[in-house]
Every structure is written in C-alpha cells, then in structure tokens.
Amino acid sequence: MSTIETIKSQLSENPIILYMKGSPNAPQCGFSSKASQALMACGKRFAYVDILSNPDIRSELPKYANWPTFPQLWVNGELVGGCDIIMQMHEDGELKTLIDTVPDAAE
Amino acid sequence: MQVQQAITAKLTSTFSPIECIIENESHMHNVAKGSETHFKVICVSDAFEGLLPVKRHQAVYSCLSEELDGPVHALSLHLFTPAQWAKNSRSFESPQCMGGSKK
Q1: What is the rounded radius of gyration, in angstroms, for the C-alpha atoms of chain A?
Q2: What is the interface pTM, i.e. ipTM, of the complex?
Q3: Which domain holds residue B16?
Q4: CATH number for the domain including A75?
Q5: ∠ at Cα A26 (A21, A31), nearest 5°?
Q6: Per-residue pLDDT for chain A (107 aa), expressed as one digit of tens each?
Q7: Which one, of A59, A95, A62, lies nearest residue A80 by Cα?
Q8: I need a surface site. Which of A32, A54, B1, B14 has the fewest CB within 10 A?
Q9: Do the Cβ atoms of B100 and A80 come within 8 Å?
C-alpha cells in the first residue's frame, strides 16, 4: 500500500484520529501534548499515529492535507486543524461538540 | 532577523492586516541559539472574514510556503477578524518543546 493509501484508509477507518509527535501518554512535543490533552478531555476514544515513528506519513501527510505541521486532528475524514485551532475550539466548548457528533464505536 | 522580516513582509502584502505581531519563539525549542525556526504570529485582517479557522491557517501557510519548506519548522497562528480581535482576551502562551524532533 502506498503511503497516501495508508493515510486514506486510516482516515476512513478512524472517525477521530490525531497525527502527533509521540503518543498521548508520552508526547514528544509541547503542541502535540496540548492537543492530545484537549482531545482526551472530550472523553471519547480516538486513534493516534506517532509520526516520529512513521517517517513516510510525516513527509506525505502535510502535502495531502495542505497543512505543513503536526499535530493534525481529523474528524470524519476532514482536517479540523492543529494545536492552535484545537485549543481555541476546546476553550470555546466547540471541540467537545464536534467530537460528540461522532457515534460511539461498537465495542 | 531575515526570516522574521520575510514573514512580516509577506503577511503584510497578502492580508493587509490591521495588526500583525510576529515573535521568534525558537529559543523555546531544541535548536541553535539565534535560530529562526519557530514563530508565533498574531494577525488581524478583514481577509479572514467568513473563513473557518482551518481555512485561515491554510491561507497563511500558502502565503509562507517558501519559509515552511525552508528554515521554518512551525508556526503558532492566532488569526482574527477585526471584530473578533476587538473582544479578544485570550493569552497566547506557546508550550515548551519536549524534544521530539531532535535529529
């Protein structure tokens, strides 16, 4: 599978997915850390991809997304934004509203 | 100051902002002293009217694509319309680096 195909399948299989540096429990960048904390505060399960251990995705996703940096939050296959937008939406309560539109995964 | 000046010039000519504050935050990151890799940009312009946050950021990223392909590693963007700016009371503290991009 090409990197772009991998990205597309990640986006279609995961309604909430955060591309970040490190993991939510061990973030490797202050911006990724803030973004994942805000997302965790919304109380719903989400997927994440550590782009530091996936260099292909790190180099391809910015072109696909027209977004040069990480973290990147995608909801329902659409780019929501990076850390600044996530934090702004979190402070305004809009992030939880958006996240709550995603149905709970059948477990 | 070269990169910072280029960013200022491009943002000014593209967005005609009523306010444009650019701060070099590279010292907060894991880069050499005097680097121009990380910037905070606060920009207030009529051009952002009617654009969702993600579109505003993408407009700035397009404008600065040369810098982002080159020396600039990341931008912290705070983009407002004049009306939003007038009632804005946020702080714009950027987080400290956690070392992840060490080469």
Answers
A1: 13
A2: 0.80
A3: 2-86
A4: 3.40.30.10
A5: 45
A6: 899 999 999 999 999 999 999 999 999 999 999 999 999 999 999 999 999 999 999 999 999 999 999 999 999 999 999 999 999 999 999 999 999 999 876 54
A7: A95
A8: B1
A9: no
